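Quick one: co-fold with 2-acetamido-2-deoxy-beta-D-glucopyranose.
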Amino acid sequence: PTRDSWCPWALLAASPRGAGARRGGTPLSSPQQGELNSFLWTIRRDPPAYLFGTIHVPYTRVWDFIPDNSKAAFHSSSSVYFELDLTDPYTISGLASCQMLPHGENLQDVLPRELYRRLKRHLDYIKLMLPHWMTPDQRGKGLYADYLFNAIAGNWERKRPVWVMLMVNSLTETDIRSRGVPVLDLYLAQEAERMKKKTGAVERVEEQCHPLNGLNFSQVLFALNQTLLQHESLRAGSLQAPYTTEDLIKHYNCGDLNAVIFNHDTSQVPNFINTTLPPHEQVTAQEIDSYFRQELIYKRNERMGRRVMSLLRENRDKSFFFAFGAGMARVLLFYSITMIGSEMFGML
Ligand SMILES: *[C@@H]1O[C@H](CO)[C@@H](O)[C@H](O)[C@H]1NC(C)=O
Ligand SMILES: *[C@@H]1O[C@H](CO)[C@@H](O)[C@H](O)[C@H]1NC(C)=O
Ligand SMILES: *[C@@H]1O[C@H](CO)[C@@H](O)[C@H](O)[C@H]1NC(C)=O
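Sure, here it is.
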């Protein structure tokens, strides 16, 4: 598959160079092409450094669409850096402990009774559906529904509500069906290790984790409640999935940067703002959204930018490939990173 055969607008702008004019190649004439991107940026220096936007989806869904220039940049770079060091067991255990409620508390002690009951009922439903959602391919790989459920949702009663909210969002049929294949960033990390490149990370676990834990209790309750309401409506069939991983994959494969970065609908983040909420709840939704943008996008971008710059300054003779999440989606998908841990340790 190529972008030309996959992206709807490619038909309107038949390229004289065919597949060679995919992302990173000659711009096509369609107006939409101005919005397209290879997710690869070059930092001009000698040797060069590259910045590449990854995505937390099974690499097999996007690999064939990644332009050759991006793959060549990866191959030619001697150092490969990620947001977090996904191949380090401490990263994974750090993320896991950061998600836990403090002082041995239990969700049942923390959540209003009715909300807890709805959460439990939803997870019971997921557990029931999971065997039906799994693909023959997954079963062929020896993946069992109970095992998968425990890998994703095991110990949920001990987790902070904000992480349970993200977990609920990752427990949809499409997401379940894509479990078991390394996500693109993990795949790149594994490839980098296999090729004996130097690997590293520009962030520490706490820096990714603490901002999420920084929402206050009423904000978290609101977010969890809204997430559950969405999933309950999905269950009842009164709501179409407002965002799907499929959409995200399609936008990524088409190089649609704006959609990947800014469109809530493709980010797996529950879109609290654009729903029919009473005014005071609109305010809470807006506050949560601004908080996430500030903490998880702007502040992180600045911090990561500083670290990239100092790495480049301190290693002037080395080529670099920085692989960071391509957009908005990255920041609230820590949950996938935890999943990476289970995949690495052979659970999936
Ligand atoms: C949570 O934060 C919001 C916005 O800063 C504030 O209005 C609200 O009172 C806070 N709630 C609690 C329980 O601290
Ligand atoms: C959940 O949200 C609905 C609709 O916004 C509201 O009526 C209900 O009181 C909320 N429940 C909790 C526990 O916050
Ligand atoms: C949500 O956004 C869409 C497109 O931006 C808009 O047409 C729609 O009216 C919005 N819905 C609400 C409830 O704000």
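If it helps, The CA atoms of residues 100 and 159 lie 4 Å apart.
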